[in-house]
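fyi for ur records
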Amino acid sequence: MKLTLKPAFGLSGSALKVIAMISMVIDHVALYLMEHGTILYETMRCFGRIAFPVFAFLIAEGFIHTRNRVHPTFRVIVY
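which gave:
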């Protein structure tokens, strides 16, 4: 039984991962290489904060679509 309907449009999981990774890199570049307190620094940091909610969404979607709910959790704890 499928819990969600497939939308007619939208981004794939891979596209969301790429967006999240790019925003995380921008966040880290701003943190380590930019002067604190400038408008560009603040803008880059704000854009970089998109990464966490996207990754959290992908983890939740993966948990919904897995058949074995114990195995992924156990794998994260063991490794």
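The mean pLDDT is 82. thats all i got for now
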